[in-house]
Design goal:
Radius of gyration: 19 Å
Shape: elongated
Strand content: 15-25%
Number of strands: 2
Order of helices and strands: HEEH
Number of helices: 2
Distance between the termini: 21 Å
Strand order of the largest sheet: 1-2
Largest sheet: 2 strands, antiparallel
Length: 83
């Protein structure tokens, strides 16, 4: 996981202060959950959330979830498209 160096953060904050700019931040831990999936991915019903009428059905994911191998790739694609 990429981590910013302390010197880089200090330099960035000093530039923002000296140039009277605005600085925003983003929570990267939950950013993966905003990636829309391009392909059909299905998962079993997790324990505690089973549908009593259809216990053998699977769920089609519309958004990425934690520990999904495609989550990082999809978030990167979403960010690239936005920028």
């Amino acid at each position: 996981m990429p981590v910013a160096k302390y010197d880089t953060v200090c330099t960035l904050l000093s530039m923002v202060t000296s140039l009277d700019l605005e600085l925003d931040q983003m929570d990267v831990k939950t950013a993966f959950l905003n990636g829309t999936l391009d392909e059909g991915i299905y998962m079993c019903q997790p324990p505690g959330f089973e549908d009593q009428e259809h216990p053998d059905w699977v769920w089609k994911l519309l958004k990425a979830i934690y520990q999904l191998k495609q989550a990082g790739c999809q978030w990167n694609k979403t960010l690239d498209d936005f920028l």
